[in-house]
Amino acid sequence: MPKRDLYHDVVVHALIKDGWVITDDPLTLSYGGRDVYADLGAERPIAAQKDDQKIAVEIKSFLGTSPINDLEDAIGQYNLYSDILSEIEPERSLYLAIPERAYKGIFSEPLGQLISSRQRLQMAVFHEDEERIIQWIP
């Protein structure tokens, strides 16, 4: 099992405050006899629909010595999990949870904007001190 991200509990609290129910911690993604682990699985009841909304969340702190290396690692995991989810749970959306600092940092730069638009990243931007999601980026 992978080590939890520094902001794991922050994101759990933020999702709960936003109306989500944590269903998996971590969320096991199995394919072809191999397992990988997204940080969280969550559901939120939608009153107007029959089924609940389901998400998988991969949390990244972006606290490494190189924002580019952090971005490479995050995108690699995001793409791997996204491909597996599309096969085994296509109804579940994947979100990359990042601190506001990273969103205003590397993701606001031209490279971050290119990658997030080309990769069609879905992100949950969180405020680490307030433990809340401040922006959902579909």
Mean pLDDT: 95
Query: What structural class is derived from the secondary structure elements?
Result: alpha/beta
Query: Which residues form runs of ≥5 with pLDDT under 50?
Result: none
How is the largest sheet built, in terms of strand order? Answer: 1-4-5-6-7-8
Largest sheet entry:
6 strands, mixed
Rounded to an integer, what's the Rg over CA atoms? 14 Å
Helical amount: 25-40%
Query: N-to-C SSE series?
Result: HEEEEEHEHHEE
> What general form does the structure show?
globular
**Beginning-to-end CA distance, first to last residue:** 28 Å
Characterize this entry briefly:
The model has no long low-confidence stretch (mean pLDDT 95).
Give your account of this protein's structure.
- It is a single chain.
- This protein is α/β, with parallel strands linked by helices.
- Helix content is 33%, strand content 33%.
- The protein is built from four helices and eight strands.
- The chain has helices at residues 8-17, 67-88, 100-104, 110-118, and strands at residues 21-24, 27-31, 34-38, 40-44, 53-59, 92-99, 123-127, 132-137.
- It has a six-stranded mixed β-sheet with strand order 1-4-5-6-7-8, sandwiched between helices. The protein has a two-stranded antiparallel sheet with strand order 2-3.
- A hairpin with an 8-residue loop joins β4 and β5.
- The longest helix has 22 residues, at 67-88.
- The two termini are 28 Å apart.
List keywords for this structure.
33% strand; 4 helices; globular; two-stranded antiparallel ribbon; alpha/beta
